Amino acid sequence: MTDFIHRYEPARDAGSPPLLLLHGTGGDENDLLGLGQMISPGSALLSPRGRVLEHGMPRFFRRLAEGVFDEEDVRRRALELGEFVTDARTQYGVAAPVAVGFSNGANIAAALLLLKPDVLAGAILLRAMVPLSDAPKANLVKPNLAGKPVLLLSGQADPIVPASNSAKLEALLSEAGARVDHKVLLAGHQLSQADVTLARSWISSVEAKAA
Ligand code: MLT
């Protein structure tokens, strides 16, 4: 299996979609387990630790400055994460997961959606940015996200993600065919109770549609 330190919690309800939990800068594989349980209590949880270290803090790809990404590395690491998910699905016998990513984890999830759409069943992107400045070119063909459900939750007062950037990400994903639900919350970059409540009801509606 592609080598990611990770945690795996088996499903308690076979009908709930598996979640791929992707932490923010400085987090690890334990960070989002609680969030995953709150959002979808019966789901299997697959939670890798980012393999890039920035001053000792785990991340999922390299950046040149805050909000300025090493896009070569974004592409390489997103493909690597895609392989890990595919291998883990075989090892643990789970369906394609819904990604739940926060900040840097949301950005790698967005890159994975654009580069390898089949790896994910959908995504909850918490405080995400556009991960690749020319996503269609990066993929060489236009990504096909036909009907893929995506919940994008942005913070109105987020000092890291400008409103124009999350709007651009929404447009990019929608143009590729994803079913994007974008909400701007009265919040900053950090998560709020509203994120948990909205993510929880969104995932139950996705489950209901899949059933
Ligand atoms: C990133 O580097 O992915 C974004 O700037 C978010 C962050 O991790 O601070």
How would the blueprint of this fold be written?
Layout: E1 6-9, E2 19-22, H1 33-39, E3 45-48, E4 52-54, E5 57-59, E6 63-65, E7 68-69, H2 71-92, E8 98-102, H3 104-115, E9 122-126, H4 135-138, E10 149-155, H5 163-175, E11 179-185, H6 193-210
Parallel strand pairs: 2-3, 2-8, 8-9, 9-10, 10-11
Antiparallel strand pairs: 1-3, 4-5, 6-7
Helix pairs in contact: 2-3
D-malate is lined by residues 24-25, 63, 66-67, 103-104, 107, 160.
What does this structure look like?
The structure is a single chain. By secondary structure, this protein is an alpha/beta fold. It has one domain: Alpha/Beta hydrolase fold, catalytic domain (Rossmann fold), CATH 3.40.50.1820. Helices cover 36% and strands 22% of the residues. The protein is built from six helices and eleven strands. The strands form three sheets. A seven-stranded mixed β-sheet has the order 1-3-2-8-9-10-11, sandwiched between helices. The chain is globular. It starts with 5 loop residues before the first strand and ends with a helix.
Q: Secondary-structure element order, as H and E?
A: EEHEEEEEHEHEHEHEH
Helix content: 25-40%
Q: Regions with pLDDT < 50 over 5+ consecutive residues?
A: none
> Which superfamily, in CATH terms, is the homologous superfamily?
Alpha/Beta hydrolase fold, catalytic domain
CATH topology: Rossmann fold
The proportion of strand residues reads 15-25%
Global structural class: alpha/beta
- The average pLDDT score comes to 94
State the CATH architecture. Answer: 3-Layer(aba) Sandwich
Ligands: D-malate
